[in-house]
Amino acid sequence: MSPVRKTSLDRRSASEDSKEQRVPTPRRDLIVVRVGPARSRAKLSDKETSGSLIRGIAKATRKPGIQRTVIFRSRTGKQVYAYSVYPQDVTKIVREDKNGKKSLGRFVNGQFKALRTKTL
């Protein structure tokens, strides 16, 4: 059997489909090459730029206090909590729900576990 030979047409279409770009690395002996078409960056609206976000934060913090409804708002329907460190024992966490009920507990494997002994 004879090997399959690529024509110039095959080489041209392959080079047009994929672009190669060397990626900078921290070591001289490590070479990383990115293959494929360049990804386009996401377009940000004017409201999403850093300048407009900072102006919005400045406007929100001009007045003292933030309404509870703003803090505990959830678009997914899940309950939202506010967490803070318990001042008397920094190994414990205070969890507050939208009604103002505070529970004392700890985080175990990424989940809040309320202590049975104390409700603030």
Give a structural overview.
By secondary structure, this protein is an alpha+beta fold. The chain has a domain at 46-119. 22% of the residues lie in helices and 27% in strands. The chain has helices at 8-17, 50-61, 68-71; strands at residues 20-23, 32-35, 82-85, 93-96, 102-108, 111-119. The strands form 2 sheets. The protein has a 4-stranded antiparallel beta sheet with strand order 3-4-5-6, with no helix packed on it. Strands 1-2 form a two-stranded antiparallel ribbon. A hairpin with a 7-residue loop joins strand 3 (82-85) and strand 4 (93-96). The longest helix has 12 residues, at 50-61.
Number of strands: 6
Main sheet characteristics: 4 strands, antiparallel
Helix content: 10-25%
Structural class given helices, strands, pairing?
alpha+beta
Average pLDDT level: 77
Distance, first to last CA:
83 Å
**Regions with pLDDT < 50 over 5+ consecutive residues?**
6-15
Rg, Å, rounded: 28 Å
Percentage beta strand: 25-35%
Succession of helices and strands? HEEHHEEEE
Give the helix tally. Answer: 3
Please state the oligomeric state of the protein chains shown: single chain
Tell me the strand order in the biggest sheet.
3-4-5-6
Shape: extended
